[in-house]
Amino acid sequence: MPKMKYLRYIVIALMLQCAINNYACGGPSYHPSQTAEWCQMYQPGPVEVPIDEQFSRVNIELWKEDTYCEYPDSMVAELVYKYPLSKVEKLLKALESNDTSGCGEINEYVLDLVKSRYNSYSMLEFLCVAKRCEETRFKINDDEWYYPVPGDEYMSELENVVATCRQEISEGGSVPLYRWLLQEMRALMSLGRYEECIARWNELRKDIRNNAFMKQIELIVAQALEHEGRIADALVLYAKYNEEDKLFSLIEGDRIDRIEYLYGINPNSPYFASKLYVELTDLSQGDNPYEPETGQTLRDSERLLELSKRVIKERRTENMGPWYYTAATCCGFLSRYSEAKEFIRQGCQKSKREYYPYLRMLHMYIDAQQSGYTRDYEQRLLSDLQCVDNELSGNMTTEVKTRLCESGYYGYHVSASNYYWNDAMRKILIKYVVPKAMSANKPVKALQLLAYADYRAFNIAGLEHFRPDYYYWRNPIDYATLAFECADTMSLSSLEQFVAELDNPKDVMSRFLLSRGYTNADYWNELLGTRYLRACEYDKAVACLEKVSSEFQYTTNVWSSGNYMKRNPFNYDFKSRNSYIDDRLDYKLRFASEMAELTRIYKTASDPNRRAAAMIRCAVGMRNSVDFCWALTRYEDFVMFYPEEYPGVEEMIEKSEKMIEQAFKLFTNKEIEAEYRYEFFQYQYIVDNLIQTSRGRAVINNCDIWRDYAKNRYKDYLEAMYNIY
Amino acid sequence: MKKTHKLMVCVLSLILLTACGSSWSSGEGDGHSSRYPDRKDGNGIYYWRTTFKLDSVEQQFLTQNDVKRMYVRFFDVVKSKYDNSGSTPNATITFKDTVPEGVEIVPTVYVLNNVLDIDKRAQSKYTGESESELLAENIDLIAQKIVKRVMLMCKAHGINTVREVQVDCDWTKSTRNNFDQLCRRMQNALPDSIELSATIRLHQLRQSVPPVGRGVLMVYNTGNFRNINTKNSIIDLNNIKPYLRDVDYDLPLDVAYPAFEWSLLYNERNEFAGIMYNMDWSDKKLYKPIGPNLYEVISRHYRKSDEVLLKPGYKIKVEQSSIEELKRVKQAIDAAVTSGSTILYHLDSKNLSKYAENEILEIYRNSTDVAVRY
What is the 3-state secondary structure (H, E, C) of A478-538? Predict the structure, then answer.
C-alpha cells in the first residue's frame, strides 16, 4: 500500500529493530527513520532532456555564412549583440562613404565587413532594423505603465519595422527571408496584431529554412495563437519545441491530465521520463498523513496506470521504458504485484536497453514487498542484486564518489542517498528484505544483507576509510550504519555465526553478499570481541581481539576522541577518576587477557587469599568496564555516555558487588583483608573488626572525618559518574 | 403588451426625471459638489471582465434598460513585483469591441489597498527626506501614472466622451489618508471636464468622506464567502443593516447592486477552495445535490474557465442575488442614505439571463422613483 509512507516505514523500521534488538546499544545515535527518504526511489530510467543549441550561437554561425567571412565568434557577437543601434548606423554611413573614422573602435571582422564584403550593406541595414525593433521592444517592456496608442513613438517605430520587413521580403534581397520575418513577427506581437502574425506565418512558412530561426518564429506564432484563444494550436507548436513550462501551464487539469494531453500531441516528448518520475515520486509518498484519508493516491495511481496501459497498447511512442516502469510501479501502489511483474517482464523485452536495470530494480522492489524470505525468493533476489550491483559499480564515477563523501555532520545516511543505485538498493534491502529475513529466523543472512547494503558503494568507491572533513576524528561509516546497529544488538550467537561465516559462506547468496559487502576481519573481530567483553566471556574476547590489528584500532571513534582508552579499568577509587594507564594500544585485549587470568585464578587457585584478591580485582574490572571505562564494552558516538540509560549496567554492578562481598569472606589473612577493605573505604569495618592490623591502627590514627566512615561510599557510583565530565 | 409597458415606464421615468430638476447631488454647502449633478437620469452597469466584447444579449440589455453609463474596469493597480515601494498596472482590459454609442463610459481603476500601504519610515532614513514628502511624491507619481494611462487607453479606443473616472479601493482606516491624497492628486491630474468618483464600501460609510465628486455605494459581497455557513455572501440584508444605522454621509451617492451568481467551492474539510461561475448542473456524473443550493462533487474534473480542480467530496454552494432580497435591501438603503442612480454589477449575459426582463427593470425603476422623491 502506498499510503502513509512514513508511518509504514516507521512500523517496518520498528519491526526490524525489534527483530534484531533486545536492548538499545550505546553506539549509534542515528535513527533508521532517516533512511526513509525515498526521494530517488522512483526514477523511471535515464532522464534525457535534449538541450537546445543556443540560438545566439547558431545566429553567429549564420551571420558568418551570410556575410561570407570567417572570424572568431566573439568578433561577430560584438557586432550582432553588443553594438548599440547608433554605432551600427554609423557603420552603415561609413560603408557608404568608405570612411570608418567616425565609428570609434571596431574589430577586424567589422572593419572587413565595412570595407570589402559583398553582402555587407544589406546585412548592416538589416541589423539596424533588428536593433531598432529590439530597442523599442525593450523600452516598451521596461515601462510597466506604458499603454500602446496608435501613432505613439513606440508604435510608429514598430510600424516602420513591419513595413520595412514586408518590403524587404517582397523584394527578395540578399538577406535571408527568415531574418526579416523574425523581426516582423516580433514587431507584430508587440503591436498586438496577433492575427496578422499568424497569417504571415501561414503565408511564408513554406519558404523558411528549417533552422533555429524557424523555432524562434514558430514560438512567436504559438504566443499569437495563445492570445487569440487558439490554445490547442498553440500547444502543438509548444509541444514541437518541448516548451515544458508553457505546455504545462496551458494544458488543463492536474499533472496526470497534462501528461495525457502531451502524449496526445507529442507521443515522443523527451519530457515523459522526468514528468513520470515526479508523478511517481509524489504518489509514492501517498496521501498527506495530516489530512483525512481521501484515497486520492489510489485513484491517481489507477489513472496513471490506465494512461500507461493505453500508451503501451497504442505503441505511438518510441521510448516505452518509462511507460512500462510507470505501469508496473502503479500496479505496485495498488498491490497488484503479479500484474506489476508482468509489466516489468514485458518492459525488459520491449524497452531500450538502458531501462533494463531500472526495471530490474523495480522488480526487486515489487518482489520484496510481495514475497517472504524463502529459498525461491532468495534466488530471484540474487538475480536482481547481480544486475543492480553491475550498475552500482558501472556508474561509479569520480563525481559519485565525491557525492558519497558529502555526508558531513549528518553522517552516512545522507551520503548513501546521494547515488541512485546505492540509495534504491539499500532502501529496498533495509526496508523490506532484512525484516523478512529476520522474521524467517535468518539473522545471519539479515546481517550479511545489511553489511552489503551499507558498505557496497563505499567498497566500490574505495572509501572504507573515508572520514568527513568536519569530524575527521569520527568514523561515520563503521559505527553509523544499520549493519553496525544490528551487529551491536543482535544475539551474540548470531554474531558469532556471522563472523564464523565471513571466510566460509554457506550458500550462493552469502557468497555474493560477503564477496561484496563489508568483511573487514579487524572490524568484525573487534566488534565480536567487544560483545564478549560485554558478556564477560573473556577467553573468547581474547581470541577475537588478538586478531585485531593496531592500525584498525586507530580508526575507531573511541581511540581518537580523548583519553577513554587510557582509563584504568582496575581503579578502586570511583570518585577521583584520575587513574590512567600509559598505553592505550590493545586496551581491550589487555583487559580481556587480565580478566581471563583473574577468572582462572579465583576459580582454581588453592590459596584463598589469592583467590579473594583475584575475585576483587575481577569484580572491579567488570564494573568499570560498563561504567567509566565504558569504551571497553561500547562504542562512543556523538552523545554523552550515561550508563544508567543502558540496559545491563546496573545488573553488572550488582554482580560485581556480590563478587566483592563473596571475596571478602574468603580472606584468611587479616592483614591482607584490611588492606583491601581500606581500598574500598570500609574504615568503620576496619575499626570494628580489624583494629589489630597495621592498617587498622593507621585508620584510627589518621582518619578523623566522619564521611570516611560512611558505609556505602562504594555504591555511590552515580554521583561519581556525573563528576567525570 | 410588454413592449408598451416598458415604453411607458421609460417615458414616465424621463418625464419624472426632467421634472425633478433640483439635484440631490449638487452637494450644496458640503464641499463635495458634483460637476454633473444632472447625471442621475440614467441607469448604470459595471463591466468587470478583462476583455471588452459585448455579445448580442448584452448589447440588447444596454438598449432595453436605458443604460446610460458603463463603469468599465480598465486595469488594477498592484504592488510592483520588482520594487516594493512601486506599483504597476495589472490585468489591463483588452478591447475587442468598440464601446457602444450613446453609453457614457466611466473608466474605473481598481487600486489594491496594499499599494497605499506605504511604509515610508524605513525609506526616509536613507533619503533624509521627511515621511510626508516621500509619501506625497510617491502618491503623486501613482496618481499621475493612473490618469495618464486611463487617458491613453481612452484615446487608443476612441472613448471620447469621458466625464468621470472612478477609483475603486477597499481602503481602511490605516490607508484612508493615502487614499484621500491619491484622490486629490488624481483629480488635479485629470482635465477639468472630468470628475473623479470613488466606490464606497459599507464599512467606509463610517469613515470620513474621500475628496471626490461623488461615490458609488457598493452593496454586494456583504458576507464572508470563505465560510460555508454564511447564508449568502453576495447580498444579505442582515449583514447590511448594521452599517446603515445613523448614516450621515456627505457625498452624493449612486448605489451599485449585485446582479450575479457565483458558486463557491469548499474542500472536504469545508475550507474555501475557489469561486466558479456559470455552472452547469445537468451532468449527474459530476455533481449531486445535497441541500438547498448545495452540491457535492462526485467525479474528479477540471474547470478550465475557473482554473479549478474539483475532487470528489468537495462541496459547492450556489449563491445569487435574488430579486426579493434586492428589493428589501434597496428599501433599507433608500431609507438610510440619499441615493441617486442605480448601477448593476455586472454586465454578463450569462448572469443577467437569470433575471426576467421585468425584474431588471424593477431594480432600475426604483432608482428612478427614488430620484423623483428628491
Answer: CCCCHHHHHHHHCCHHHHHHHHHHCCCCCCHHHHHHHHHCCCCHHHHHHHHHHHHHHCCCH
